Give the backbone structure.
Amino acid sequence: ETGVTQSPTHLIKTRGQQVTLRCSSQSGHNTVSWYQQALGQGPQFIFQYYREEENGRGNFPPRFSGLQFPNYSSELNVNALELDDSALYLCASSLGTVRGQETQYFGPGTRLLVL
Amino acid sequence: SQQGEEDPQALSIQEGENATMNCSYKTSINNLQWYRQNSGRGLVHLILIRSNEREKHSGRLRVTLDTSKKSSSLLITASRAADTASYFCATDEAGKSTFGDGTTLTVKP
C-alpha cells in the first residue's frame, strides 16, 4: 500500500462526455503527476503539479486539464472524450525538492472506457 | 517518442535463474527509477538511482547506471514465480517522468 488513492476505480463514458478523476496523495507529498497507460504500453506523462502549480506537461491536448488543491490532492479532467482516451489513468505522488523529484508512489489507477 | 526503452520486450526464465533487463534513454537525467507492474494494476517503485550513482542494491535487485552510455540495467537474482510482472524504467528530467514500454518477465515454477 502506497497511501495514494484514486477514485473511481472504473468508469464508462460515451464519446463527447467529460470526466473527472481524483487522486489523494501520500501524506507529506507536495507533488502529483498524472499518467495515461494504454493497454500493452508504458505510462505516458500527462502533467505534474507542484504546490498547486502546473510544473510540467507531456504531449496531451488542452482538453486534458488538472488541478491541485491546498491539501495536495488532485483532479484530472478530460473534456470531449474520444475513443482513444480509453486507458488506465495513474496518479503518482512524490516529494518535490530543489534537486528535482524524489521517488514516486503510484495509486492503483482508474480504468476509463469510452464507448 | 519514448525516452526510456527497455530491452528485451519479453523474457521467460525458470524459477531460480537470474533476470536482466536493460533500459536506454536519450537525454540527460536527474535520476532513473525502476518500477514493477502486475497485470494492469498500479506501479510499484523498486529502486531510484541518481545520475551521480553507478550501482544500487535492494534485496535481490541490483541496478546499474552508465550515464556515458545513457543506459541502465536491472538484475533480479534467484527469481521467483511471484516476480512475474512487467518492469519499467523511468527517467526524470525537469519535472517530467518518461517511461518505456517495459519488459514483461515470466518466471516459470
Summary: DSSP finds no helices and 13 strands in chain A.
